[in-house]
Structures are given as C-alpha cells and as structure tokens.
Design a protein that fits this description.
Layout (H helix, E strand, L loop, with lengths): L1 H10 L17 H15 L1 H29 L6 H20 L1 H27 L6 H19 L3 H41 L1
Helix pairs in contact: 2-3, 2-7, 3-4, 3-5, 3-7, 4-5, 5-6, 5-7
Length: 197
C-alpha cells in the first residue's frame, strides 16, 4: 500500500502556479479604458473639448521646445532659423491655448474643417485623374468638402461641443478596435499552443 502511494506521488505532476500577472484579461484593459472614456466623453462633450484644448496647448509647448532645441543645435545649417522661429512660436501658441483652452478647442475644430476642405479638393482633383476607384474617391471628396464647410460655418458654441463628440466617437471606436484586435491575438495564440501540444 505504501509502495502504491509512493508511486502515485512520484507520478503526480505539481500543480502549475500562476500569478495574477499571467491573467489574460490584462490585455483587454486598454480597449475597455478607451471605450469607457469615449462613452464618458459623449455624455460630457464640453468637458472632453476642454480636455482636448489643454492637450493641444501642452502638445504645442512640448513640440515647440524640441523644435527650439533642434534649431539651436543646428545653427549654421540650412533651415536652422526656421526651426528656432517655430520653436519660439509653438510654445507661445501653446501657452495661449493653456490660458484659454476653450478658444483653443474651437480653433482646433475650425482648423479641422479647413483640413477637410483642402483634403477634399485634392481628392476631387485626384478622382478625375485616376482610372481606378474614381467614383469612390469623388464621393469621399464631396463628403469631406461638405463636412469641412459645415464645420467651418459652425457657431463657436456648437464647434466646442462638436470636438467633444468627435473625441468621444474616436475613443469608442478605438476601444472597440483594440478589444477585437486583442481577441484575435488571443485566438491565434491559443491555436498555436494547441498545435504545439
């Protein structure tokens, strides 16, 4: 009896101990966070727009600092003074946005509208010159032109809220994409582990 128990004990495999760091659910947390923050932004678009204005100001300050350092380090080369000039203008604009993030957010919306219009013009010109996919490209160009004109003609209050909705929709779709991508990666990993067994 004792020999039998010894044989069973010798043949038994020790249970695999897994820490909480090995939990596969951690990979889904970024997607969940994006989705939740996006939903919150859609429920509070003005707060999301305010945060976007602060983010814009901080980005201009940081980017301007790097451009200024790069311009000073490249003194004597072509384009160095342009880097220094942009390095001085960008932080100044960033500080102005940080002091009034609402105006910065509204300006960002109008810049986006202008970007839609410029992009729509180029896409429309390209649509008449390419032989393949002409219809879709012209359709996208018309949509961008209409959207850009609509955004530029928005009153400031509507433009401010529009940015919050845009941020919320972007974060929701980013979260959904992250969750779907993570699920696919986990599926591929499980298939690979099953094939190796």
């Amino acid at each position: 009896m004792a020999e039998t128990m010894t044989a069973i004990g010798a043949g038994a495999q020790p249970a695999e101990r897994r820490s909480i760091r090995d939990w596969p659910g951690w990979d889904y947390l970024p997607g969940i966070a994006f989705f939740v923050i996006g939903v919150l932004a859609l429920t509070e678009p003005h707060l999301a727009s305010f945060a976007a204005g602060i983010y814009l100001g901080a980005t201009l300050c940081v980017a301007g600092g790097f451009m200024l350092v790069g311009g000073i380090a490249g003194v004597g080369h072509r384009g160095d003074w342009l880097g220094i000039l942009l390095g001085l203008i960008s932080p100044a604009a960033g500080v102005m946005v940080l002091f009034n993030p609402i105006a910065g957010a509204i300006s960002l919306v109008w810049v986006m509208g202008a970007w839609f219009i410029v992009g729509g013009i180029f896409e429309l010109a390209m649509g008449f010159s390419v032989p393949v996919g002409r219809g879709w490209l012209i359709l996208i160009a018309i949509v961008n032109l209409v959207l850009g004109g609509f955004v530029i003609m928005m009153p400031p209050a509507q433009a401010f809220a529009f940015l919050g909705y845009l941020v919320g929709i972007s974060l929701v779709f980013r979260g959904l994409w992250s969750l779907a991508f993570t699920a696919d990666i986990h599926g591929i990993r499980q298939q690979a582990e099953s094939a190796m067994r």
